[in-house]
Amino acid sequence: MKSPDTRAFGGPSPFAVEVVVTVLSGASKGATLPLKGKVRVGKAPDNDLVLTDDTVSRHHCELSRTVAGVLVRDLESTNGIVVSGARVQEGIFPPGTILRVGEVEIGLRPAPQRMDVLPSESQSFGGAIGHSVAMRTIFAILERIAKTDATVLLEGETGTGKDVLARAICKESPRSNKPFMVVDCGAVSYSLIESELFGHERGAFTGAVSARQGAFELADGGTVFLDEIGELPLDVQPKLLRVLETREFRRVGGNKTFAADVRVIAATKRNLEREVAAGKFREDLYFRLAVVPITIPPLRLRRDDITPLISHILNSAGASDLVLPKESLESLLAHDWPGNVRELRNVLERAIYMVKPTGGTELSAITFPLSMSVPEGGSPFQFEPSKSYRETRAKYDADFERRYVKWLLGRHHGNVSAAAREARMDRKHLHDMAKKHGLRGESDG
């Protein structure tokens, strides 16, 4: 028998937006399917949306679009369809409705609407320089959200400028005259990271001889920049999530509650969506941080920015009077820059240091020592006292990864599967690494 009280809804058409059918529970939890035309749901493999749960019939129900909403029709299933506690045979429901098909919950979710953002007319944002469309589009987004309290997640390879953009966001925000506290989640000891964030009371743990304020307390009214958030230990992640949700925190070993009046900006070189899928990062924390997710492209994918970056770096170093010969510029434009903007700055500064003491006027001493062969008995490492341990390691990690993948693929003529077997690593991971470094490889093997 049909349910007459669930057949129609007044007001404007719910299909001003697209609808996505999302499985919210059961064995197929997380599966999604755009609702275009008709979608048949059931256990049989010939359904559009297959649910393997025992409480679902072979052909359980059918969903279709109408001008009034989503038409849901039971296909004579055993356990029926339940909406808001009532079993229905047929009805029209708006986006946002949750259906229970057997014991499996299905959501009729409005599809996210894409908002096209025109590239900014400005070729810089704070200290970040970018003439490419990709960077100017990022600048356009940041120009809008910098003036709000929105949480921002900056993703990108090492050296792409995440720290520079974080500081620029703070400078353009209403909190610009308040503290800007940085916590490097990858550099703080595992046992001290919670104290670094929230502080601790005297005697909270061995070595806590006095009370200490954490970043969230010191940045009151300002901004906390959580660098390398992907390195945050799993057992600390729920504590950070609770602070972001409640806007309150306690020091380690304390009972007093403090208000967390701060804006949070996070950055990571990891792909957090992939980390969530691998169980290495909490999904709820990821969504709480990624209110405004920004992915900064590597320098090799925005070569239009290399020339203006060179000019900016030379001007900042007081070397605008030095001439960059054509052959030197061509070598800079041709390099793949595994260390991104940071590596470019290092190369130019090295060239300046080599030329200025001699009174020269041309930057002809630009070299890429990491790409050169190492003399027998020599060392491939060239350390710089001005760089921190973390910066130095990141620089060589990226170069090692690129050179190893290139060597490995070369041994197998680009066959990713064969190369992955020899290296005893996951084929998809090797494919992603090759893609990241712009190396060619065949997926089949």
From TrEMBL:
Q: Where is the Sigma-54 factor interaction domain?
A: 128-353
SUPFAM superfamilies per the UniProt record, alphabetical: Homeodomain-like, P-loop containing nucleoside triphosphate hydrolases, SMAD/FHA domain
The record's section on Gene3D superfamilies has: 1.10.8.60, 2.60.200.20, Homeodomain-like, P-loop containing nucleotide triphosphate hydrolases
Domain (FHA): give its ranges: 39-88
- Identify the keywords attached in UniProt to this record, alphabetized: ATP-binding, DNA-binding, Nucleotide-binding, Transcription, Transcription regulation
> One Pfam family from the UniProt entry?
Yop-YscD_cpl
Q: Keyword Ion transport: yes or no?
A: no
Superkingdom of source? Bacteria
The family database entries (PROSITE patterns) matched by this protein are listed as: FHA_DOMAIN, SIGMA54_INTERACT_1, SIGMA54_INTERACT_2, SIGMA54_INTERACT_3, SIGMA54_INTERACT_4
Name used for this protein in its record: Sigma 54-interacting transcriptional regulator
Q: Which organism is it from?
A: Pendulispora brunnea
